[in-house]
Amino acid sequence: MSTERAATYGEVFAVREFRVLFGSFALLVSGDSIKMLALSVLVYAESGSPGLAAAAYMVGWLPYIVGGMFLLSLADRLPARGLMVVGELVRVVVCLLLAYAGLPVWAMLALVLVTGLFSPVFGAARSAMLPDVLPGDAFVLGRSLLGVTSAGAQIGGLAVGGAFLAATGPQGALAATAALSAFGALILRLGLPPSPPRQTDRRGSASGAVRTTLRVNRVLLADRRVRGLLLASWVPPLFLAGGEAMIVPYLGGQGKAGVVLAAAAAGMAVGEFAVGRFAAPALRERLSLPLAVLLGVPWLGFLAAPGVGWAAALAAVAAAGLAYQLGLQRRFVDAVPEDVRGQAFGLLSTGLMTGQAVGAALIGVVGEVFSPRLGIVVAGAAGVLAALALWRPLRPEPAPGRITAEQTPTRTP
Where are the transmembrane segments (predicted)? Predict the structure, then answer.
């Protein structure tokens, strides 16, 4: 368990490289929210199909599965700054093509899918750089700030995207996203120093990257400590996502559901900020298990069939439990080898993305067979059981060299 002095947000923001990563990340999340909303509207306008419009909204997340399985080693074999800049420029090109190339619906979806295969690589490069610029406890606070920023940028991006859609249509919203990405590329290029790759041996082609990715993924998952931390990071949010996926059918209206989902995003931001700001490093680690349990408990309140107000409050409290991951961050950095840190963070993100899709699908089946309300309750119960089953990786690790009760030899007569 960590006993070091807690860092402060002021110390984190004093680091120039973090301010660059922070600002570019806010632009990225806002831009992606606008892009997927505008793409959904554009596809619906072209096809008139609600199903295709929904698919367009989700299509940006699907490539994470493939990219995370086969391409993540590139995050350690190529310079991080260059990867992040290329990622922003790819988004510029994609948004402009979607807006003005007059592509048919199938081509638009294919473009987003293919270019999205490298999104996990770009994100992994950013995540792996964070412990370099923020050593020690400052890294955990940096992750906390990025979590708060992600929630706020999603809400702000959807609001700004809606305004652009009303004023300029989906083409104008996509053009605005391209401008945000171009600005983000400029910030990264001018604000970060050159960064050498973590692995100096870059022999081989794309097939070599695939083999390396598969090999390192196997090594990471074979390590008991790393595997436990990955499962502890992946599984509890799976059921949170399942519960949130049932909010729209439960309330029977997009407007009401939007209020509840916005409350969940706000709850996540408050939880991340409060635990990051007010909990010392050792306390964050002790809070991991109870906060992971908290992800599921509020959904059990849907047994009482709450209205919009109570549903929003319950969703906010549940999402606040996501702050449990702050207690795992330092342990995860310590557990993975430095030369594959980029791939390790990419694998972590890929599992989170995949788990959210799996959770929504599983709980969706329950909601379809029985009822959305029962689906939400099942998600809560499963979330609580999952957190309790993962108590070993969720509880604090003993300090190095400290003898625990289990390790103390018994005295024989």
Answer: 20-45, 51-75, 82-100, 106-125, 145-167, 173-192, 228-251, 257-279, 291-324, 344-367, 374-391
